[in-house]
Amino acid sequence: MAVGSALVAAMATDAWQQARDGLAALWQRIHPEQAEQMDSELETLRTQILQARQDQDPSTEQALEGMWRLQLQALLQREPLAAGELRRLLDEQLAPALDPGQRERAYSVLQNTTVFGGTSIVAGRDVYREPPTPKA
After folding, report:
1. Number of structural domains, the chain?
2. What pLDDT, in 10s, does the model give residues 56-82?
3. FRET label pair with 110: which of 6, 22, 121, 124, CA 20 to 30 Å apart?
4. CA torsion through residues 79, 2, 67, 17, sign
5. pLDDT tens column, 5-30
6. How far is CA 126 from the centre of its chain?
7. Euclidean distance between CA atoms 81 and 94, whole angstroms
8. Residue 120: inside a domain, yes or no?
9. How far is it, in rounded angstroms, from Cα 43 to Cα 37?
10. Is 24 within 8 Å of 38 (Cβ atoms)?
């Protein structure tokens, strides 16, 4: 849900209009009947983010980020084909508006695993049962 993180971060930058326009355009294509409401929600988000930063209130900013992650996750559950468009929005509009630290945070994934009575393998890349054979 990197888009939610990047959206909230971008709304506090000079590129907020571009971030808002990108998500609003996506919403217009997917749910045109909700586009006006989404546009209003994005304007409210910007106001809330700016106020949280002014108040030095990171907990409100984190809560807003979580709220938008959930909202975008619900969108993907209803419209799985929107994943590609959200990824393009992230890569082409949101991430370039962020400073390197915010960009890294938006793309990072935190994963927790609890295993009871078994074995678990969690990997971000390839998993081998034996070391791979070196290439000559």
Report:
1. 1
2. 999 998 899 889 888 888 888 888 888
3. 22
4. negative
5. 888 888 888 878 888 888 888 888 88
6. 25
7. 19
8. no
9. 10
10. yes
